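Students often ask why we bother encoding 3D structure as a string. The short answer is that it lets us treat folding as translation between two languages. Here is a chain of 243 residues written in the first language.
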Amino acid sequence: MGDLKDRRARKKAQTREQIRGVAQRLFAERGFEAVTISDIANEADVAVQTVFNHFATKEELFFADRTDWVDAAAQAVRTRPEGVAPLTALREHLMGTVRCYLRSLETPEVRLMTATLDASPALTAYERELHHEAVRRLSVALIEACPEGDSAVTGAPPSVSLRTSASLTAALWLAAVRALVIEQRVELIETVGAAELAVTVERLADQVLGQLAANPTILPCCPPAAAPSAEITGWPTLRRQAV
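And here it is in the second language, the structure alphabet:
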């Protein structure tokens, strides 16, 4: 009985992967709007209903296995090492994310995926919804990271002040990354001197996230670490906070 369940699970996973691979290839070749669910089903040699059994929408198909980032910031806060402040862990994670994303834009596969995404109003709208979900999850993780947010200990729900503070913190941090990287990705791919622009964006992200981490008024339960600031060459009026 167990072997039968395992075989069914493997078959289901294989079918899902087949559909996903075919769909994403067709999207890259023809554009998102030009591809129908019927096209995907025919190419994958499955029924249309089988596609819908695995993916509710075309948008979900496009982003399948490409949305680890939605939960990553929240997990960085939840899984931080003992003694590391939530905002310190968040800053380190987001800087790593910025660096990886900037490097990925140099690859043909990501460039093609990005071009397909940016050419589709439906996909860009779906991406914004994923961003809002990432903000929501990070907000919850920040609440949990504060002693006042642990209802099991306090016996009371988090205060309005803490919930608002966590929501604002999550929104500000992820909006900063989106503005610096996602909103600039066309220029980061197509502009002459894009490599130099990527270096500038990475350094600016470090400076902006450092300032957010050092701001004690946003999330009061996460006090900033005391550290000297350092000049950033090329940005004489701005300073980077080492946290």
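Translate back mentally: The longest strand covers residues 229-231. Keep this in mind for the problem set.
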